[in-house]
Amino acid sequence: MANRGQKRSDCVDGMPADKRACNSMEFRASASTSSAPIPENSVQEAQDAEMETSSSTSGSRSEGDVEKESAYGSCDSDYSIHDYYRQRAMGDHSKFKKLLVRLTEEAEESAQLALLTELCELLSFSSDGSLPSAMVDSFSPVLVRLARHETSPDIMLLSIRAITYMCDINPRAPGFLVRHDAVPALCKILMAIEYLDVAEQCLQALLRISQEQPLACLQAGAIMAILTYIDFFSTSIQRVALSAVVNICKKLSSDSPALFMEAVPTLCNLLQYEDKQVVESAATSLIRIGEQAYGSSNMLDEICKHGIVQHTIHLIGLNSRTTLCEPTYIGLIGLLAKSAHGSTVAFRSLFELDISSTVKDLLSTYTLTEGAQSTQVVEWQHSQIHEVLKLLNELLPEITAKQEGQQMPEKEAFLVENPDVLHKFGVDLLSILIEVVNSGVNLFICCGCLSVINKLIHLSTPDTLHSLLQTANLPSFLAGVFWRKDHHVISLVLQIVDNIMLKLPDVYINSFIKEGILFSIHGLLSPDKDLKLSPVLDGIRLENDVTQRSAARDVCRCPCFAFDTNQSSRSLENRVCKLEERTIQNSAKRIWAAYFEKESVNPEKGVTDVLQKLRTLSDTLTSMVNQSVEDATSGDREAEIYDLLNEIMSALNEKDSISSFEFVESGIIKAIVNYLSNGGHLLGQENIAPNQLRVMEKRFELFGRLLLSGANPARAECPLLILIQRLQSALSSVESFPVISNTSKRRNSYATVPYGHCTSYPCLKVQFLRGNEESGSDYMDDIVSVDPFVPVEEIEGYLWPRLCREKAKKLISESHASKGKDRSRSHSPLDSSIPQEKVVDAVTTAEMLLDAHELQEREVHSSPLAETWFASENVTDSSDATDIQTEEHDLSQCDHGANGDYQECSDSGDTSARLLFYLDGQQLNRGLSLYQSILKHKAQIEHGNANFSLWNHIYKITYRRHVTAKPTLAKDGDGASSSSLSYKRATSGWYTPVFSHMFGSKVGFEKMDPTHDILTLMRCLDEINRSRFHLVSREKTCAFAQGKTDDLDGLNVVACEVPQTEFVNKKLTEKLEQQMRVPMVVSVGAMPAWCTQLMAWCPFLFSFEARCKYFHLAALGQLQNQTNAASHSNSGGSNGRHHQNNTPRRKILVHRDKILESAVQMVQVSSRQSVEVEYNEEVGTGLGPTLEFYTLVCREFQKRNLCMWRDNSLSLNGTAVSEAEDLGLVSTVELFPRPWSPLLNTSSSPEYSEVIKRFTLLGQVVAKALQDGRVLDLPFSRAFYKLILEKVLTLYDIQSFDPAFGKALSEFQAVVERKEYLRSLCGSDNLDVCLRNTKIEDLCLDFTLPGYPDYALISEFDSKMVNLSNLDEYVALMVDAMTNSGIAKQVEAFKSGFDKVFPIRHLKVFTEEELERLLCGEHVLLNSDKLLDHIKFDHGYTISSPPIINLLAILKEFDPAKQRAFLQFVTGSPRLPAGGLASLNPKLTIVRKHCSNGIDVDLPSVMTCANYLKLPPYSSKVPPVLFSSTYQYHVSFALLVRRHGCF
Predict the structure, then answer these.
(1) DSSP states of 446-501 as a string?
(2) Tens digit of pLDDT for each residue in 1326-1355?
(3) What's the whole-model pTM score?
(4) What's 1342's DSSP letter?
(5) First to last CA, the chain
(6) Is 420 within 8 Å of 462 (Cβ atoms)?
(7) At a CB cut-off of 8 Å and minimum separation 6, what does 137 contact?
(8) Among 120, 217, 804, 1505, the one annotated catalytic
(9) Is 1505 among the residues known to form the active site?
(10) Which ranges of 462-597 does DSSP label H, i.e. alpha helix?
(11) Cα(1442)–Cα(1049) distance, rounded to whole angstroms?
(12) Is the distance from CB of 257 to CB of 298 less than 8 angstroms?
């Protein structure tokens, strides 16, 4: 009641019709007249005026002012407000008493009318609770009596209106009114319907009463009273009426079905109406009636006779004009399922209406990996698919054992008599059901799909089944499903196999053998038997999948009952799983005995010919690789291995001849990985020797040539593409990564460790125990609450200062004790080895650090929410002698340990670790969160069963000191070797530096697991694909060196990569998406370990959209989910993560003539705040000006006078150079840092110092833009993106930012390699090798960097010219200067600036192209045919308006420069966000602008904050005022952007 409490004179006119005091002229329906139409121009002017002032008004006051006003305004007159309302309530109470007395006594109609008018006015302005319940009870019989005053419609209207107001004011009023028979009185009036306005007021009153008393309304026959004359009312009143019906249907009673069943025809008819709210209310009512009628077949048949099935199928179809809300949509699908279960009429109607086509369309939209942004939306999609599977399971009768003489059920008989119907059903749904399962759905949906497939196969005849199975590779699908290793899934798969073999034994037995199903079934005969034929035969165990709980209320925990239509909470509690202990084993034995128990198909002998061939090739390759490892000097053996690999690839290229089972089981994958790693993969080597690395790189090159040879990689016959597809199929078949859904309810908790802060999720209870070799306090009695989602390494930051404090106390006590002893004892071996001043220094350091840590702890625990961590500490004496130097070193590192910035999960050892943690004797991975570590540990102990509780257990974690050995001379020598190797690699200029970390790193997977081998090979193929240009260029260079060609122009190759989407595994992507949708996932640490490990090791397996979500969760998600951590970061926890409860906005004032200075001001804003820009002396703020500011900052960073970038003016055409010079920008297509001599330093060169500062600022700006979701206009080169991602550049990367110079260096490198090749043949150094018939000496090159004469590549005292003998040195130094030493400090400055906002390492999940898309958005594409799909036309314009048609035609004719200008004008940025125009938020809206000076004179205006373009209705396609010339066009847009940026 928003109008209550204001002056009556101000509010009466603005009140709604049902609460406005009325006169007699308004009572009759005949007297009502419609309002006069408002002129369109007036409406448009009002809309324009509102739009013109909205943003400027909002920007006139800062948010802080608004917050202050709202915060303090309510406190100044607190007591006076209470007094006012108290006095007013007392006055109203006395008025109510007087009115009650007078209404009771007064008999004259005119007086009653006046009293009722006064009562309605008084009630309309009364606050909640101002009318006591006793007064309501007294008013109720009086008002009900007056409502029956048939001779005076005015009295009836006002009395019913008073009843309505009473229900609004007092929640107990409906009960009193029901007791005094108000509902029958209202129903009688509705059935008579003499006066339309009285009837409308009755509906308003019934709506209020039905909210509290639905059963009384039902028993009074209110449903039919409301619906009888529903068509007489306007749409708004129909909505009110049907809302009342929905309320009544909440309490339907089976005792009197006639009260609601007679409403079904009217409700079914309402489903055809156009109003969305009317349709939804009618559908909701029918859903509840269907639930009530579920137990009666007769009632369901009666409902179906009125066309509910037809109307429902139309509403849930994709072509329906009415868009229903998700609960109603899902409820209608459930209504069809219930109807099909209990009604034969509905069952037949569904098949006759081709329900399979509708369901196919619904299942085809089940693409959760695309476009589903919110968790709530995805929850509804899961519920939708669950209801669809319920419907399908009801349409196919249950499989029951048939007894002799038993009559076939009616539904099954219908399908048997109509085989064409069943065949059509199967053709529509079999393939789509297989796709749904293969997408990585949860256990319930997987079982639902398999159940439908099983029933379909069981009901089909052999001929129908054979025809049906031609549409899908069912054996391959079943073999992949076996890997889920869940009892329910395997039981359904066995039933499907049994049904197929029963009907088509000769057709599918070979396919089952080829796909490995035979071997899987054989493994089920004795789960303890360890067969070596298939990794799946390790016995059946529950899958590590605590599947997602669907949002649907009726999803039970056991899949046996998940798709039962009738599910009540009581019945579910008493249900027991249908699978008995040995059900699966018994089924496997029966199937084996019936179909496979033959000598020819014995799994020990019955391998296929293809598998034997591949296994032979695999064994041969492994043997040859092992021999080559032993005999490293054998060059001929490498040629033999290459020929064998060629033979293997030829065998794999035979399409459809090799199944995924044969591919995995043959060992080919492991053999290829073993070849590429030179045996290191199988031997488990982590530190690869330089000579081994060179062998691996050579093999990588040869294998890459083999895969890239021949066809275009984008075509189907490319060896690389075929191998990728086979690996994807194998990975989808064998992976069994769990999807964990935490069922714990979200609740507020307080985490003591690693820093005291509140969480919105439960914490883990932990006891930290010292190891046996540790001294100090044991903390046995302390149970602390630990944030479950922080890395284990952050817990070290909590414990380490406390251990240091104990050390300090111990050292102080020992030192003080030693001072009181006899001086002669100071000559002990311990004291003689350590100078006395060292002891004094150590004691002083210990005392200082002790004081510091105690101060920190007092600050942390001063919070009222903090829990006491420390118990009384008893410092135990140690019998061992203490090395004081070590103590002092450890103590000096305490602060560093407390505040250090720990890096992301790395499975390799962390040399900075000070403590190691153990759970039940197993060391915890420091990079994983404690939650992930415990989850992994529990899964191992309980054999994969993840159905355990994590939150109620107390975990005892043991900590020990991490002892690291001091560096030795041998290690220093190794480092020198590594440096030498790096130099050789830079000298050669072509090696792809990927193997130094590929085979040595751990990924947390068992190496004997085929998944590990598949992932390793996929990683190699991804690197080959991304290094295609390097490998092809290298091949051309080698051909020139060996004299096979003299064409240096052939070095310019165009490398076509396999599309990155081919590396995306849809199943793993869907699993990651499911995991990120779990409500408890508030950080990456809340997900299973495989998510973080795969994202770090093989990010290419996931789609770009999924990685974007993961990135925001990993890098930015903690900003929105962690609280109070930043203020306590000094308590011992590492502050490497950002913590923030929300992202408040902070406005900064920007001067257009001081853009970079304003950028410095922007980056100084806390990372917890997003930035909004307000220009000095300009009106408006918001998204548009902020985007424009980022664009201006990008323009400033590209200016030539900043000396930040290479300026390749000679490489560009004249037009590009002139435009860049006009704007003062560097003349380059893509930005790459300008090289500066590494001999310079910031102190000796002020100019160089400023460059370093600018790169630091640039890193901060880029990170801030990424954090706030802003688009940048910075054309970084691909090579610079590689540097950001910490990849090493090679010679061939230079062509990406300087094509001419990169080409010249490639030719120089080819000359060098030809010289080396000729020298190896003739053994002479006197060679005559020329570059394009020109001697190297004649080029007159010196050892300076071209274009930068001050950059000397060698010492000034060693100046020399370039010749053939030192050309290799020249190339190496040039590559190093341009890609390494000359730009290293600039790149490091950029990274350091970026890290100040959030760690740059989180960007590593993206490729260079994806990172550009993430930072700079999409390239301008406004000429697409889909342009209309992403633009909204409103306020006077439609898609067919002539100005709109003209504008779209003009946009499609724009060149890229004009498109950028248009986008800058409308949005504030010349680039679109990632996803293009479809991702623009708010959506681009074009409205009609009211012109005051004439339609062809006014300019368009925009509101950039809302992407809102107000376009005058120009009479021509190209209005002279705006498009007279290109120059005028640009000037107009520039002026409009500045003057109307937020208008």
Answers:
(1) HHHHHHHHHHHHHHS-HHHHHHHGGGS-HHHHHHHHGGG--HHHHHHHHHHHHHHH
(2) 778 888 888 888 888 888 898 888 888 887
(3) 0.74
(4) B
(5) 34
(6) no
(7) 176
(8) 1505
(9) yes
(10) 462-468, 474-481, 487-503, 505-514, 517-525, 569-573, 583-591
(11) 54
(12) no
